[in-house]
Write a structure and sequence with these properties.
2 copies of one chain form a homodimer. The first copy, chain A, is an alpha+beta fold. Chain A is built from 9 helices and 9 strands. The first copy, chain A, has a 5-stranded antiparallel β-sheet with strand order 1-2-9-4-7. Chain A has a 4-stranded antiparallel β-sheet with strand order 3-8-5-6. At the A-B interface, α3 and α5 of A face α3 and α5 of B. The first copy, chain A, binds a DNA duplex through α9.
DNA sequence: CTTAACCCTTAATCTATATTAAGGGTATTT
DNA sequence: AAATACCCTTAATATAGATTAAGGGTTAAG
């Protein structure tokens, strides 16, 4: 069973997160924090599984998640990682209430703060600042994703690996190579080869 | 030279576009339409070239555009197409005022309506409904892009082609194969082979 | 403490897709 | 009407990256 209760403790981080956009007024802070649900998630536990409808927008307070799809042959393909102070959810499934094609799984023991779709809508309808802040948040995510797609289709595996190292230096040591390979779109064996060649030079 | 003047003619389409989200009040309509610039774009003319900072958010009134990057070997990779009633721009470059890595080029003679960054900011600050509407617009684009990335990394070229046909049946006949190949991430030669095999079955 | 479940690497073979080359067809442009 | 620039296809050869297999190392669980 999942331990879930209204968050009462560590809300500083998420408030600071919003302060980097348009900072929230006291009333908005209260509206937000009173709707957040805190959950502790164990390693290998799922926030979302293929076929389920994604029910919440998730802020990662601590820990690390991967979001991935599984192809016909059963191979996993990582679309994104999310560590502390990032958001993760299958927005398509959440908004359109359709079964997801994706899994979201904890790579490390984690703590998250979640908003249900209803809570999100409440915030959007009553406090326009959330429209603004989430517009900017998703714009930033769109930019990242587009960059990633461009890399994926136009760069070699070696280049993609080097970009990954530049963009996420912390993750290189934190994640198992096998997860990075899945994100880069290569097999772990080939990533191993790439690393080796890189090292030789 | 580019012909550019304040739009006075066909604004129905873009107003209807917003009506599909949260419909605009008269005042908001006026605020929007008075800031739109209409431009007629010839085939092969660029809205954006690599190295330039993207200056506007563009609504396609009629015609068709491609947005693409060029790799080290000079090969083009199409990230997106935009036809009538769609938006196109390099959001990263526009927002962060950084040189773009992309080109946006007309595939057909086209008419667009453009908003400058300043106009967009004006609308966002004075009419919160634009925050809402553009939040939803970009969410939809994010969903599309994520789906595309998943396909790109987890499906075979044949599957990607079949998905393309299902998702954009109008475009299959409207665009040259060579552009579709670039979007799918294969060479025109290989796409030709795929089509051939598909037809045989 | 032991066993199982992961994780990483190396190396041989294989495959989906790229590259090169060539010919014929169709639009644009002059 | 000719010339030029595109566009599409076929086929031979080449290659980035996959697959299979095997061995050793580390971490987690019983």
């Amino acid at each position: 069973m999942i331990i879930a209760h209204k968050a009462t403790i560590i809300l500083e981080n998420i408030i600071n997160h919003f302060n980097r956009y348009l900072p929230l007024e006291e009333e908005e802070k209260l509206a937000l924090t009173s709707r957040l649900t805190e959950r502790k998630i164990k390693r290998r536990q799922f926030l979302l599984q293929e076929g389920d409808v994604c029910k919440s927008f998730t802020y990662v307070q601590s820990g690390c998640f991967k979001m991935y799809g599984v192809d016909d042959k059963g191979v996993e393909h990582n679309l994104a990682f999310a560590v502390e102070d990032d958001w993760i959810s299958d927005i398509g499934s959440l908004h359109k209430e359709q079964p997801s094609k994706l899994f979201i799984e904890a790579i490390e023991p984690s703590v998250v703060l979640q908003l249900s779709k209803g809570d999100l809508w409440y915030l959007y309808s009553n406090y326009p600042k959330f429209d603004r802040n989430f517009r900017v948040i998703i714009e930033d995510k769109y930019i990242e994703l587009q960059d990633r797609l461009l890399q994926t289709v136009s760069a070699t595996a070696l280049n993609r690996y080097e970009s990954f190292i530049n963009q996420y230096p912390q993750l290189v040591n934190r994640l198992p190579s096998t997860q990075i390979a899945s994100y880069l779109g290569v097999t772990p064996e080939f990533l191993s080869k790439i690393k080796n060649e890189r090292f030789k030079k």
